[in-house]
Amino acid sequence: MDATFTAEQEEIRRTLRELLLKRCGPEEVRTAVQTADGYDPALWETLAQQLGLPGLALPEAYGGVGCSVTELALASEELGRSLAPSPLLATAVLGAPLLLALGSEDQRAALLPRITSGELTAALAVPGASLTTALGLTGDNRGDWAGGGRAGGVQARQTDGGWRLYGQADQVLDGHSAGLLLVAAHAGGFDRSRTLLFLVQDSLVQDGSGSGGATRVRLTSLDETRSQARVQLRDVEAELLGDDESADVDVAGVLAGVGDSAAAVLAAEAVGAADRVLERTVEYVKQREQFGRAIGSFQAVKHRLADLYVQVQAARSAAYYAAWATSTGEERVGGLALAQALEALRITASEAVQLHGGIGFTWEHEAHLYFKRAAGDELLFGPVHRLREHAADAARLFGGGEVAV
């Protein structure tokens, strides 16, 4: 692994950081999350059309830049520093790779260029609260999380006119505003039980409680910068992702692969948030005085900040390695990197609130934005101990099997 970044990678970081410093401060973030979309459409247009972020890791044949997950992780690290709300995670990290891996050539040609340009956003909808299981991060995704023929999942039924879906998906990231839903559903009944992915176009979805085949409602979430929605499907028309010949493709394996790369990107994003909140805390303790001196000069405070710095840097190394491993196909370590990054963000944000003193405990202070991101991400993609437990099970650390060295 080459630990140095290329000039192009450094340019991605520099350009994105300069843009976000100008257009995505704490007040802009609070304003953006109150909009109907949950993000600033003008900023998203800039990120998509001028910087090409949605197509950063997509092939040039579909209008993408042709970079790897590493570049996408570096961009997400900068977005994490400012907590910029955007549909990048749902669209470019979860949706687009699934379209690229499983979609037919016609589907890829029709949808990926629109995603690359920022015109179309996508969201992955899985039954109930099974997102991390579906992505293979906290459990085996070859089970019956998609429904298994029982109530509570999303069921797919094939008819003469195509496919129809029925069920409910919660925790759909940016599901209230996405123009395209990728829905994981159980098909085949008990004879040929399997999980497939389907496309539901925006024209078949209604917001609120409309009478259409599908409805979606934006949920109140702890972290407002990470919008979530509930999607209800009532005999809605859908298109199989891929074609009939690809119905036997290993969908679970593809989802696990996308989950690993998504975990690496999320780890980098969490590291960016942790690094930024640590910077702000160091700036504050240099200014706040107690007993006639800055509290940052006290040895106890120095030690606490030094411990945080070490933890953030260790998480950064793990995130970078996971992104590199994903790009080269070496091994799947995204879940472990995500666990370390989420833990670093949680501890750093908690310490930031405390070291800011009384003002740090007010909801208006920006430290709470980072604290909510830490708590929200662990609820969505963790918890940390389950990420590590699943990684240990996959490596057979405690099963009596051989351990790779």
Task: Give a description of the structure.
This protein is an alpha+beta fold and 405 residues long. Helix content is 48%, strand content 16%. Strands 1, 2, 3, 4, 5, 6, 7 and 8 form an 8-stranded mixed sheet that branches. Strands 9-10 form a two-stranded antiparallel ribbon. Helix 5 runs antiparallel to helix 6, helix 8 packs antiparallel against helix 9 and helix 8 packs parallel to helix 10. The chain is globular, with a radius of gyration of 21 Å. The two termini are 17 Å apart. The mean pLDDT is 90.
Write the layout of secondary structure elements.
Blueprint: H1 7-23, H2 26-33, H3 41-50, H4 69-82, H5 88-102, H6 105-117, E1 122-125, H7 131-134, E2 154-159, E3 162-173, E4 180-187, E5 194-201, E6 205-207, E7 214-218, E8 228-240, H8 251-287, E9 289-290, E10 293-294, H9 299-328, H10 334-355, H11 367-381, H12 384-394
Parallel strand pairs: 1-4, 6-7
Antiparallel strand pairs: 2-3, 3-8, 4-5, 5-8, 7-8, 9-10
Helix pairs in contact: 1-4, 4-8, 4-9, 5-6, 5-8, 8-9, 8-10, 8-11, 9-10, 10-11, 10-12
